[in-house]
Design goal:
nine-stranded antiparallel β-sheet, alpha+beta, 248 residues, 24% strand
Length: 248
């Protein structure tokens, strides 16, 4: 028979391993459940916005795995396509939950719109609070002209190479949507090269449906305004460098 002492020594030696492995196992199980729940919420958000805009969007692809959701649709009223991707932070490790104790860890939604129309101007909209993003591009932004939007001046920097055209992209509805999404916008870009509209947003489960709906409405309405503005848009070296710096 195996003695009680042997069980005792096995337990003593195994205890540190159990202590180390237990949070890893628990966080992996919980993380997978949390990923699946987030994915369901984001999927539902896209389905609802699709129903709401069924006369405007026609789905072409909808793919997902635990860490990414990809939605592609044709914009019916224009020769344009919308690509939306949500990249989920991997929750299957205890480091994620440790970081979450000190602040929010949102997932990131990128929306890209490809249009068969050269914009009359480039436009960069970047929140003033995004210091890390601004530090990468501020030298390039200084070579463009800042657009004064009084109602959003304290929140965002608006810059363009052709402000007279870019201002015409910014309808009252666009500015309202930007204001509504001011806490989750990372940046919005209108550029000569495709994708002609590129925007990044923070997204989380509690507000996912609202953020997805308004983000798609913002970018598609922006696209509709862009195609209405006639002008001789021409890509410049500075906008190439600025966009490259923004995406790094």
């Amino acid at each position: 028979m195996v003695s009680i002492d042997l069980f005792y020594y096995i337990f003593i030696f195994a205890l540190p391993l159990i202590i180390v492995l237990l949070p890893i196992v628990i966080s992996f199980i919980k993380g997978k459940k949390d990923l699946m729940r987030a994915l369901r919420a984001y999927t539902q958000g896209f389905i609802k916005v699709e129903r709401r805009l069924k006369e405007f969007l026609k789905r072409e692809e909808f793919e997902k795995n635990l860490l990414e959701l990809s939605y592609v649709a044709r914009i019916i009223s224009a020769n344009a396509r919308l690509h939306a991707t949500i990249s989920l932070i991997d929750r299957r490790n205890y480091v994620y939950y440790l970081y979450k104790l000190f602040g929010k860890l949102p997932d990131i939604m990128a929306i890209r719109i490809f249009i068969d129309h050269l914009p009359a101007a480039s436009l960069y909209i970047i929140p003033r609070k995004k210091k890390r993003i601004l530090s990468k591009v501020i030298a390039y932004l200084s070579k463009l002209e800042e657009i004064n939007i009084p109602s959003l001046r304290d929140w965002f920097i608006f810059s363009s190479d052709e402000p007279r055209f870019a201002l015409r992209f910014l309808s009252k509805r666009i500015l309202e949507l930007i204001r509504d999404l001011k806490d989750v916008i990372n940046y919005i870009v209108v550029d000569y090269s495709q994708p002609n509209i590129e925007a990044s947003f923070e997204v989380s489960e509690p507000e996912s449906e609202n953020i997805i709906t308004k983000s798609i409405m913002l970018t598609t309405n922006l696209m509709l305004n862009i195609v209405k503005v006639k002008g001789a848009g021409k890509e410049k070296e500075i906008t190439k460098f600025l966009r490259r710096a923004l995406s790094e």
